[in-house]
What we know:
Layout: E1 5-9, E2 23-28, H1 40-46, E3 53-62, E4 65-71, E5 76-78, E6 81-83, H2 85-92, E7 98-107, E8 114-122, H3 131-140, E9 153-155, H4 169-174
Parallel strand pairs: 8-9
Antiparallel strand pairs: 1-2, 2-3, 3-4, 5-6, 7-8
Amino acid sequence: MPGNEIQVRxxxxxxxxxxxxxxxxxxxxxxxxxxxxxxxxxxxxTFGGEGWVRTGDVGSLQNGFIxxxxxxxxxxxxxxxxxxxxxxxxxLLKHPMISQVGVVGVPDPDGGDSVPRAFVxxxxxxxxxxxxxDIHRFVNGIVPSYKRLRGGxxxxxxxxxxxTGKVMRNVLQALRxxxxxx
Length: 182
């Protein structure tokens, strides 16, 4: 809309990033609110300065198009590296054995912030016994070391899906699982 502006800023530094790089979307609009009623801390965090508003959405701007990746609340860190669950989910969905996937961050037993854990639903034609090893090899061959599924891969008969059709990551996060990753 006329009069609206958008920027993508680095998740760590809040500096504006170049086209195509991933960051958080900030918007500035003459129609924007000035803040939250009687919530000065949240107002300062979201409505920072110079009229720019943090959206909480993560993605990139490229050739005039907005590419959404995830929400800031879903992103977690592993040794100061940001991990986007949806990015790992998109990679996992390319594996021929997987029909559904959900990725969450779980506490790192080795002292990092969080590690990625995948919950997958397999296509019926694939056996479970070698699936986990095959999926690990597949993912490890694509992602950098810090994005490896150190939290394990767990096979479920189905994933919890919300009313909007999205995987409910909060439910996956709360699942009680056997000790040690798969």
